[in-house]
Amino acid sequence: MTRRDAAAAGAVVALGAVVLAGLAGLPAPGDARSAMAALIASTAVQARHATDVVATVTFDYRGFDTIGEELMLLAASVGVELLLRPLRDEALKLRRAARIVAPSPSAATRWSARQAGVLALVLGVALAAHGHVSPGGGFQAGVALGAATLCVYLASHLPGLRAVVPDHHAAIAEGAGAAAFVLLGGVSVATGGAYLENVLPLGTPGRLLSAGTIPVANLAVALAVGGSFATVLKEFVEQAVGEGRGG
Amino acid sequence: MTALAYGTVAVLLVAGLLGVVTTRNLIHLVGCLAVAQSSTYVLLLAVGLRSGGRAPVATGAPPPTAFVDPVVQALALTDVVVGAVVTALLLALAIQAHKRFRTLDPRDMRSLRG
Questions:
Q1: Does this model's pTM top 0.90?
Q2: Between A113 and which of A13, A18, A155, B73 could a Cys-Cys bridge form, CB atoms 3.0 to 4.6 Å apart?
Q3: CA A188 vs CA A40, A194, A202, A212: distances in Å
Q4: Which residues from chain A sit within 8 angstroms of residue B69, using beta carbons?
Q5: Which residue from A192, A232, A207 is spatially nearest to A75, judged by alpha carbons?
Q6: Running along chain B, 114 residues long, what does each successive block of 10 average in pLDDT?
Q7: What is the least distance, in Å, from the CA of B6 to any CA of chain A?
Q8: Quick one: which of A178, A177, A124 has its CA closest to A147?
Q9: Which of A144, A145, A128, A131 has its CA nearest to residue A60?
Q10: B13: nearest CA in chain A?
Q11: CA–CA min distance B46, chain A (Å)
Q12: Phi and psi dihedrals of A93, rounded to 5?
């Protein structure tokens, strides 16, 4: 460790002490008495008929923020694609790598990756469909769906991944999901309501078809996030193969 | 409980930042940043905790009075998304830096020197 490292480490530890002193001024964990939390807890289920109160917060009370969160994810995925786009010399290398017959993964890897992939797929669909009645939702579902595409890569290497997720399909899913989410908010504006206000029947809380637009938003977000993760993971995998490693 | 929760926050933050300032490897740096950021998840959940509180999912039976704070849980969701996004972008930048300089050690990247 150099002297510069030691000085930097000293500064970080000092910062930690300041943060700890600041945290000591907060109410003790377990004593949360936020008026907003109490209000939401007592009204959210009656208002939106979604038994998962976090989903109501995410897609109703702060629905507009969630649109921003989704667009941020979209922007980041576009950024990764731009940063990792194949340059002229790399495009050649990638084409050459595509022709190389990669060593097949071992039987154990193939079997485990297939089981995990099916589980991730089912989990993703279940989380998206039940996000308004139980913990979960579009973002979590999208991550599970993205993980499923990575399992395809583990089970069958790059050709398998390209067959299951052809070029641009993940990007189209990502864009379509994000657009559907943004337009869903616009539907209520067109009918005279506020942005992302509910426009569908609310149904009985706890049922699959309930909570109005929240399950629709969950499905759109699952598509967008799944597409983002699949796009980004595929970019990284192609980099690894193009570099002659991981391949 | 206070010491455990807030102590964990401070330890995660300091450990992550210590890694960030002392590491000589950009990939390692991204991992350390993720550790530092995970302290904010613990902080958000600790701030919204209520002793005896249930998860904010209505089950129908008792009236939903003793929920933990659902607002900070929704914020933690945003926090996780931001963490994933930052990690992906930084890793992409690390790949580009490695292509340009053939190293992941920031000391050997001449045009990055101050």
A1: no
A2: A155
A3: 22, 6, 14, 12
A4: 32, 34, 37
A5: A232
A6: 87 94 92 95 89 79 71 91 92 89 83 54
A7: 6
A8: A124
A9: A131
A10: A16
A11: 5
A12: -60, -40
